[in-house]
Amino acid sequence: MRIDYLAQDPTLADFGKDTWWLVLLKIVFAFVFAVLATLLGVWFERRVVGRMQVRPGPNQVGPFGLLQTLADGLKMAFKEDILPKASDKVVFFFAPTISVISAVTALSVVPFGPMVSIFGERTPLQVTDVPVAVLVILACSSMGVYGIVLGGWASGSTYPLLGGLRSSAQMISYEVAMGLSIVAVFMTAGTMSTSGIVAAQSGNSSASWDIFGWHPTAPAWYAILLLPSFIIFFIAIVGETNRAPFDLPEAESELVAGFMTEYSSLKFALFMLSEYVAMVTMSAVTVTLFLGGWRAPWPITFWEGANSGWWPLLWFLGKVVLLVFVFVWLRGTLPRLRYDQFMRFGWKVLLPINLVWILALSGIRSIDGWRATDRWIVIGIVVAVLLLIVLFWPNRKPEPTETLQQQVRSRPAGSFPLPPMDLVVPPSPRLKRAVAEREQAVITAGADEKEV
């Protein structure tokens, strides 16, 4: 018996009909998923990075070190909670909770699976869905930065404030690139509903593929069709979640620990929780928008029951773990970018490429009468041009044509003078005085000994 996959896809009409206890159960499931993802995510990152660095990682507390993160959480809970005197007490207290709530709330519109039966009730494996669900995710992602900015400002210290300001600039820069990447998904799927976007990536839903003249019978992920959008979106979420190599708001090398410098105990743990929940949440969003959501990957799709029941939850979690591994992989291999490099990459590379890609996609969509082959040829040419621009765009400053001495001599009169290249810094007057006093003390002590 062949299973009707379309009957498994929840639509907007399937939401808002659950009983109160079922809604509460799904909310608790989303929250527990976020907390467990943090506990296992920290362990997973430390084990993977340890493997990359040829060391064992945590392996003593619990089997395979699985309870190490729980032990660390208990340790932080019993540490002394320090409140700086110069801090804004109320804002300092609530800032970490803003980041956690924003990260967890975004999971409410992420589809974990199709229609399932829970205690005899047919319901989508998703807390809720709305016609603008993806905009809800963007709003939660934007709100999360308020916790970081307010935490840095309320600490009453220089380095946390700098970290908070960096985070706000970082969010603004990469939020633009992330939003433009999602525009391509909207244009192709024809909806902003997360469950609708997942349904549009199935082989049975061909409406969203009409603009390309292709009606596939197998799952067709947007990561393949909208490859530039997928790459830019993933880079943007790495910057949005403050993960390495974009972890500039908490850069230890120049900001001690950034916005978290003055935090301790449970409030510090909440900031760590929000970072890992945001990483898992954005991985789940990437899976939903570009990797077919809960739908089984090929060749599992040959099994007729792969996209029904509770099996899709397994495929969804597998894809999320794979993307979390990529997050960890980036942290273990790439050095941190300089802040000017980071800003230049967002505004001068990601944004122009995204605009060109959206313009090309809109043009292909608006032209009628094209054959499928012609459309795919145009898409291939656009992608190839974008790749060539990325690979061969000059990223180095031109070498100066004048020497440093010539540049100094050519400066206009009255400009700020430059120190000479052979400058010898004289010793500090304070140091001179200290040496003279020490020598005088030695002479005085010697004279006293002679008198005795």
TrEMBL record:
InterPro entries attached to this UniProt entry: NADH_UbQ_OxRdtase_su1/FPO, NADH_UbQ_OxRdtase_su1_CS
The reaction(s) this protein catalyses: a quinone + NADH + 5 H(+)(in) = a quinol + NAD(+) + 4 H(+)(out)
GO BP terms: aerobic respiration
Predominant cellular place of this UniProt entry's protein: membrane
Class of the enzyme per the UniProt entry, highest EC level: translocase
Highest taxon in the source lineage: Bacteria
Keyword Signal: no
Keyword check for Transmembrane helix: yes
GO CC annotations, alphabetized: plasma membrane
Protein's cellular compartments: Cell membrane; Membrane
Membrane-topology descriptor: Multi-pass membrane protein
Subunit record text: NDH-1 is composed of 14 different subunits. Subunits NuoA, H, J, K, L, M, N constitute the membrane sector of the complex.
Function: NDH-1 shuttles electrons from NADH, via FMN and iron-sulfur (Fe-S) centers, to quinones in the respiratory chain. The immediate electron acceptor for the enzyme in this species is believed to be ubiquinone. Couples the redox reaction to proton translocation (for every two electrons transferred, four hydrogen ions are translocated across the cytoplasmic membrane), and thus conserves the redox energy in a proton gradient. This subunit may bind ubiquinone.
Family recorded in the similarity comment: Belongs to the complex I subunit 1 family.
Designated name of the protein: NADH-quinone oxidoreductase subunit H
Organism of this sequence: Micromonospora pisi
Gene: nuoH
